Amino acid sequence: MAQVSVSIAGRNYRMACDDGEEGHLTELAARLDAKITELRGHFGEIGDQRLTVMAALTIADDLSRADQKIEDLESEVKRLSGLDAEIEARVAAAGEAVAGSIEEAARRIERVARQLDGARRP
C-alpha cells in the first residue's frame, strides 16, 4: 500500500492508496483543492468546512451528470445497434429482390434471343 501527501485547502493530508495509484490520488486532491479555491473566490471566507462540503457537492453533481450522460449514450448505442441490424436486414432483402429481378431479366433476354435466333434461320 502506497502513501501520498496531498494538500487540500491549505492543509496537508497523508493518504493511503494502491501501489501505482499515487499520481491519480494526487490529481484528485488537486481537483478538489482547485474547486475549493474557486468557491472561495466566489463566496469569500465562509468557513473551510462549508467550502469543502460545497466543493464535494459540486463534484458529486458533476459526477451525477456524467453518469446520466453515460446512461443516455449507452441507450443511444443500443438503439443504434438495433437500427444497424434492421438496416442490414433491409439491405439483404433488397439484395435478394434485385437478384430476383436480374434473374428474371436474364430469362427474358434469353427468350428474346432464342426468338430472334429462330427468326433468322430459314
TrEMBL record:
BP GO terms, sorted: division septum assembly; FtsZ-dependent cytokinesis; septin ring assembly
Highest taxon above the source species: Bacteria
Coiled coil: 56-90
Chief place where the protein resides: cytoplasm
A single GO cellular-component term on record: cytosol
Keywords: Cell cycle, Cell division, Coiled coil, Cytoplasm, Septation
Keyword Cell division: yes
Signal peptide: none
Keyword Cell cycle tagged: yes
Cellular location(s): Cytoplasm
SUPFAM superfamilies: Cell division protein ZapA-like (SSF102829)
Gene3D superfamilies listed in its UniProt record: Cell division protein ZapA protomer, N-terminal domain
InterPro entries in the cross-refs: Cell_div_ZapA-like, Cell_div_ZapA-like_sf, Cell_div_ZapA_N
Subunit structure: Homodimer. Interacts with FtsZ.
Function: Activator of cell division through the inhibition of FtsZ GTPase activity, therefore promoting FtsZ assembly into bundles of protofilaments necessary for the formation of the division Z ring. It is recruited early at mid-cell but it is not essential for cell division.
Protein name per Swiss-Prot or TrEMBL: Cell division protein ZapA
Organism encoding this protein: Lichenifustis flavocetrariae
